[in-house]
Amino acid sequence: MTVSPLPVRLEAVIFDWAGTLVDFGSFAPTKVFVDAFSQFGVEMSLAQARGPMGMGKWDHIRTLCNDPVIAGQYQAQFGRLPTDDDVTAIYERFLPMQLDKVAQYSAAIPGAAELLRALRQHGLKIGSCSGYPGSVMRRVVERAASEGLEPDCIVASDDVPRARPAPAMALKNVVELGLSDVAACVKVDDTAPGIEEGRRAGMWTVGLLLSGNAAGLTLEEYLSLDDAGRQKARTAASLELSPAAPHYLIDTVADLPGVISDIEARLSAGQRP
User: Fold this and answer.
1) Separation of CA 89 from chain center
2) Active-site residues: which are they?
3) pLDDT digits (tens, 9 = 90+) for 117-137
4) How do residues 40-64 score in pLDDT, each as one tens digit?
């Protein structure tokens, strides 16, 4: 007996938060990383701070501390390379600063609220996950709700044993939403670890080139770009995201409807991610 491949239609879209649904350019975490490290006598650029974006925030700080330049500054200040206890100390300084600033930076990305409404009208469930811990996500979610962003499921980095690029947050959405197949899900993210998360979870993946961490543009900078400027930014962002092997690359979530239609056609033809 031949068993038909399942599923034949999409069930859900699972979104990242900063740089995807809110916080155009993903500045809330980036600027606070720079400020938190500066309190320990370590200076870094926004570009350096963006490097591990998408990971849980403790892991992000650990990765930054593994950078030879940053580790060298820390050693000059404290006479040792940063240990896990030092990472925790930086994280504990970072967290209240993040709580204080995150809502300020977390304006909805243009088109996001309209997209969620359209996806629901199409019969899709809306999941979400973030590199933010739950304490920070509560601030983000409160502001987002006031702007029409209310996913059916929200998973924070400390809701699972291992956050990105491990698949646990994406898979927790599958469980909580009662979905039948990971191949019926689309994971949308602006970072390589977030795309890899979706890939490891067996989902379709969509990378965002211009609204998030890969481009690092403010909304005003994005809107001011001419066609050549946008193409240059796309090329640079694609170099950062492509190693994670996203199935699709688009500018912002406003461009997602065409991708949804294409994935549904591929599912109907018997394809899987």
Assistant:
1) 24
2) 16, 57
3) 999 999 999 999 999 999 999
4) 999 999 889 888 877 889 999 999 9
Give the Å distances, CA to CA, from 52 to 47, 142, 193.
10, 26, 8
Phi, psi of 15 (to 5 degrees): -105, 145
Sign of CA dihedral 161, 162, 164, 165: negative
* 189-199 confidence digits (pLDDT tens): 999 999 999 99
Is residue 36 within 8 Å of residue 148, measured between CB atoms? no
Structure tokens at 137: 């996500």
Q: How much is the pLDDT for 2?
A: 56
pLDDT, tens digit (0-9, with 9 covering 90-100), for 187-233: 999 999 999 999 999 999 999 999 998 999 999 999 999 999 999 99
